[in-house]
Amino acid sequence: MFIKTKVSAGEVKEFREVGKFFRLMESEREVTVIYYARGSEIARAEGVKGGYAEIFADEFDGIKIISNTGQNLQFVIRNASNVAYDTPPVGNVNVVNNNGVFSQFVETVNSEEDVQLLPENESRHYLLIQNLSVSQTIYLSFSGVAVDGAGVKLYPGGSFSTDSFCTSNEVRALADADGASALVIEG
């Protein structure tokens, strides 16, 4: 389901659609997205803008979008697939009803020698790595030494995340130029 809609200041828009994936494709200003299943709130994302996306293990059957200002919105709900979108998310996301603990840090990645972003961790359930660099590309390896031009390629602003399957392997990184920054979130 792909929706283009206009909301007025303070308006609450409700949409009934079964899904596991939501992506806010476009918004001019911050909004709050509330997810429901069987009439109960299951999650909430506050202060998000275009580029925000969330994947759920279980289905939601409706959402509400609240905007403090009038604006045009575009979003998509899918039950079986993700939707790619190159704009990085903007805003603060508050995860509600989460039973895990996240650790977060920023690591500098250079081009001469790869760096260990995370050691092997059998308890890892979630992983997000975002390239915070403006011009450097970062290469990730989950099976030993990271090599320039090989592995998962993160362009500036790009990210790698897991949802239904998360590797417990060591994670290493190498950049195509010195001074790259990688945001690492593990849960």
Count structural domains. Answer: 2
pLDDT below 50 for ≥5 consecutive residues: which ranges?
none
Shape: elongated
Please outline the major beta sheet.
4 strands, antiparallel
Which sequence of strands runs across the widest sheet? 1-8-3-6
Instruction: Assess the beta-strand content as a share of residues.
Output: over 45%
Class by alpha and beta content: mainly beta
Portion of residues within helices: under 10%
Total count of strands: 16
Number of helices: 0
CATH fold-level label of the largest domain:
Jelly Rolls
Q: Which second-level CATH architecture of the largest domain applies?
A: Sandwich
Q: Could you give the order of the helices and strands?
A: EEEEEEEEEEEEEEEE
Radius of gyration: 18 Å
Average the pLDDT over all residues and give the rounded result.
Answer: 86
CATH class of the largest domain: Mainly Beta
Model description:
With 187 residues, the chain is an all-beta fold. It folds into 2 domains: 2-78, Jelly Rolls, CATH 2.60.120.380; 103-186, Jelly Rolls (Sandwich), CATH 2.60.120.770. Helices cover 0% and strands 51% of the residues. Strands 1-8-3-6 form a 4-stranded antiparallel β-sheet, with no helix packed on it. A 4-stranded antiparallel β-sheet has the order 2-7-4-5, with no helix packed on it. A 4-stranded antiparallel β-sheet has the order 9-16-11-14, with no helix packed on it. A hairpin with a 2-residue loop joins strand 4 (31-37) and strand 5 (40-48). It is elongated, with a radius of gyration of 18 Å.
